[in-house]
Design goal:
single chain, 225 residues, alpha/beta, 7-stranded mixed β-sheet, 7 strands, 20% strand
């Protein structure tokens, strides 16, 4: 999906496949749990402003649309935002938000070159860090920490089981040839759990919680002291 000359229709098909993978992988559910936790803390402090949420490299926006839908159904005030470099992905995200009838803002951002805007309560990202070098991954973690009070990162773990799950899962979940090729390649490019710990330490994530999650993912959570 990183190819600039990728046909838009094939790109959207791959984004839909990724949305299915995210649902099976419980990506939005983990983000929502973090939002609920922050909401309880905010309520205990007597605050009534909407929480601000940013999804970095949001792709087709399925995670943010899902979280926005949950917030709407529970009456939780939440300002949902997503950024991505791809115009095709952003347009698809906006259409999906409109189709689901939720309020979500999606904007263009080259996060490696421009950094991130600040003032967010939670900055999250899923299935993006495996696209990055060690140095860029550390830089992005630092940018995310500067942009928000809390950070939640979910991504692939490199390993044989993850490769098998990606290869077989994408053949069950989608007919997208782009996704079927990209998935196993992404696992090969991903970090191991020990490498993720090294990234977090280098980025200054003191007290970060890093754990393994379904299906062969790492889940990194951190909050500003």
């Amino acid at each position: 999906m990183d190819a600039e000359d990728l046909d838009p229709a094939k790109h959207v098909q791959a984004l839909r496949a990724l949305a299915r993978v995210n649902r099976v992988s419980l990506v939005a559910t983990r983000v929502w749990r973090e939002v609920l936790h922050m909401s309880r803390i905010s309520r205990d402090r007597g605050e009534n402003r909407p929480l601000r949420l940013l999804d970095v490299a949001c792709g087709g926006g399925d995670v943010m649309v899902d979280v926005a839908r949950r917030a709407r159904s529970t009456g939780l005030p939440l300002a949902v935002n997503g950024c991505d470099l791809s115009p095709v992905a952003l347009e698809h995200a906006r259409r999906e938000a409109e189709r689901r009838g939720v309020a979500a803002e999606f904007f263009a951002r080259d996060v490696l070159a421009e950094g991130l805007p600040g003032g967010y309560d939670l900055v999250c990202s899923s299935l993006f860090h495996h696209h990055l070098s060690h140095e860029d991954a550390v830089d992005l973690l630092r940018s995310m920490a500067e942009a928000g009070h809390r950070v939640l990162v979910q991504d692939l773990l490199r390993g044989t089981l993850g490769y098998v799950l990606a290869w077989s899962g994408l053949r069950l979940l989608s007919r997208s040839e782009v996704a079927r090729v990209d998935g196993p390649r992404s696992v090969r490019a991903a970090f191991t759990l020990s490498e993720v710990r090294a990234l977090a330490a280098e980025a200054g994530y003191v007290g970060a919680v890093i754990r393994r999650g379904w299906p062969e993912r790492f889940i990194l959570s951190w909050r500003r002291p």
